[in-house]
Amino acid sequence: MSFSLELSEEHRDLRDWVHGFAEKVIRPAAAEWDEREETPWPIIQEAAKVGLYGFETVATFWADDTGLSLPIANEELFWGDGGIGMAIFGTTLAVAGIFAAGTPDQMAEWVPQCYGDEDDPKVGAFCSSEPAAGSDVSAMRTRAVYDEAKDEWVLNGQKAWATNGGIANVHVVQAVVDSSLGSRGQAAFIIPPGTKGLEAPGKIKKHGLRASHTADVFLDDVRVPGSCLLGGKDKLDEKLARAREGGKASGQAAMKTFELSRPTVGAQALGIARASYEHALEYAKERETFGRPIIDNQSIAFTLADMRMEIDAARLLVWRAAWMGRNDVPFTAGEGSMSKLKAGRVATWATERAIQILGGNGYTREFPVERLHRDAKIYDIFEGTEQIQQLVVARNISGRHIR
Asked: What does the pLDDT look like over 211-224, one tens digit per residue?
């Protein structure tokens, strides 16, 4: 049986196609949309027109049995710009939530509505975190109560830091249905477009990824049809019954979504890290001090060597986890968390090193590494902080409930 780390021709074509879009469309607009702190709808529409944004695209990526299409595409997009990249791919988290918990019929109905079409593109939002429940999913307070007479679910609560919250066509909301069961008593719901009671009154001003919309979402007696419970009520009732009897749970929707998305999130961090490395490398070749390029100094050259090595190492972890997740290979050592943890650390470190290599220029907005550094930091925080990823890995390798 042969073994190769070389990308297939299809993967190389995908990489080059997305890279071209990032280079020609995203990079020239990156600084403008970062300053505006607005959703770049014209660029999302352009991505839809070329086939990079939409239901068919994500279906093709998910169908790749190697699991590499999503990481490859994300790395290249975020190489272009983190904020615009998140504006384009933020919908994928909502889609992952639907794939993780939904039925085939629900996927067919709601995933296309997350995207709209090239003439009228839409976005989706996944709402899990809360002001008092970020990494600690079991502390969630948003409640969903079933109204049997009307076959409706009534949701009340507040969600925090939701990408595309309030501007999304479709919101996927995680809520508690049985508080006595902790995280095992949760379920995910579709909030259809125009549903009354869902409000997101303001956009959060962020340190980085400023072209991506982030908001708190408030749910006040939000009523949705019974069919909007992802997976259906029969499946939920079976899961709750097992949990009450002390049986093994099949997992809860928020964590399933994160498990699916962590390698892809790691790939986003990789794109930012790689961009900062390339900017620093070119600058070091051109910038002269004392009559020679600064790359001739060991301290600079060795830093760049370390940057390249760390980025390549993180990519291998991301690709391994993506392949494992796609092929249902168990994460026996928390490989998904490893990939996101390593890539996030590398992005934060590499962008900081890039600023150092550029010196005073790196600290100004005249050069892109300042923006890349701001964009990178969130990858140590969202979708499970650095410490939560360490906890997942530690529990997996020790077999013990480390706190």
From this structure: 999 999 999 999 99
pLDDT digits (tens, 9 = 90+) for 366-383: 999 999 999 999 999 988
Strand boundaries in 36-134, DSSP class E:
124-127
CATH superfamily of 124-244: Butyryl-CoA Dehydrogenase, subunit A, domain 2 (2.40.110.10)
Reported as type and span, the H/E element at residue 128 is none
pLDDT in tens, 28-48: 999 999 999 999 999 999 999
Q: Which of 276, 345, 342, 341 is nearest to 308 (CA)?
A: 276
Kindly list the domain boundaries of the chain, sorted by start residue.
9-115, 124-244, 253-398
Tokens, residue 136: 């600690």
- C-alpha separations of 265 from 7, 73, 281 in Å: 20, 11, 25
Residue 195 pLDDT: 97
Question: For residue range 159-203, what is the model confidence (pLDDT) as tens digits?
Answer: 999 999 999 999 999 999 999 998 889 999 999 999 999 999 989
Q: Which residue has the tokens 């009671």?
A: 197
Give catalytic residue positions.
Answer: 383
